[in-house]
Amino acid sequence: MIKLSRRATTAAALTVLALGGTVAATAPASAATSTTKAAAVATYNGACGTGYKVIDSTPVGNVGKVFLTWNESTGKNCAVTIRNTPGAKIHMAVELNIDIDEEHNPVVDSGQYTSYAGPVYMSARGYCAVWQGVIGTATGGDSGHCG
What we know:
four-stranded antiparallel β-sheet; 147 residues; Immunoglobulin-like; signal; mainly beta; 10 strands; Spore-associated protein A; disordered N terminus
């Protein structure tokens, strides 16, 4: 066993662990608290329903994600914007479109929500999806997944 002093760096401890060693170190209480408190990350909540599988997700700032799902049997995409941590109502939105031309109207759900916006659906077989999410002032989106 290798014992590291309080002054040992995290990099040294990680190197020892990577080499299969054991690390026994005493860290100040404040350091232990800060490393054990991981940030919450949004996970898909199943809002689109049965048969929809997540095919992509995009961060919405550092406060959530917008998820794009696909249902092979119906040929539809679905999108939902989800906060990392539910809380007081805040402006949230989700937008879904297909990439065919600028004349096509997106499907949008926008309002004051505590945890997620959507779901929104669009027939997309043979087209590429374009999706966007908004949480407060943060935005995120992407395009692709042509089917």
